[in-house]
Each structure stands twice: as structure tokens, then as C-alpha cells.
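We keep the chain:
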Amino acid sequence: MSVKINFVSHFEFLLMNVSKVGRRGQIAIPRTIRQDLDLKVGDRLAFVRRGNEIVLQPLKATLSDFRGSIPVSEPQDFETIRQQVLDNRAYRTESNDN
């Protein structure tokens, strides 16, 4: 795998926040970033891969927050839908490990 090196300007370097990966893969999000994004303890983040970069995307809403926002013609079995999503996620994770 080749890695593209992106050079940053002096100005970008001065604005850069750096965090160190801990022994168990944990990272600390700098205070200024947490404040700018209004992140609180327990908030969830998505790690989105974009080429050789990782973007942290705050997840402020869950699917439960959207329940009832789309009209449907008949009652929905949310437990079955939830299980299908979990099964699909497990399949994708397993496929990515191979």
C-alpha cells in the first residue's frame, strides 16, 4: 500500500491539533475541537475513510430520532429491521477482515 504524503503550509501547521494513539487504540480529541463541535461525554463519532484520510463525523441523531418522520402504509416491525441491519453490519465487517 502506498501512502500519499500531504504537505501542510506553515499556517496550517500552526492550527493543527495533534493527538497520540494510546496503548488500546484510544485517542483524545483536543478541547478546542470538542468545543467547536459541541461534543459531550457519551456522544458518538463515525470514522469515515476518505482515501488516505480519516474524517471524524459527530453523530448527533439516531434512527430512533427519525421514527415516524416518513409516512408508511402499514405497521413496521422495527425489531426485524434492526436485526437485518445488525446482520448486514456483521457481514460487512466479516467481509472486510478477509
About this structure: Strands lie at 44-50, 53-59. The chain is about 35% helix and 15% strand. The radius of gyration is 19 Å.
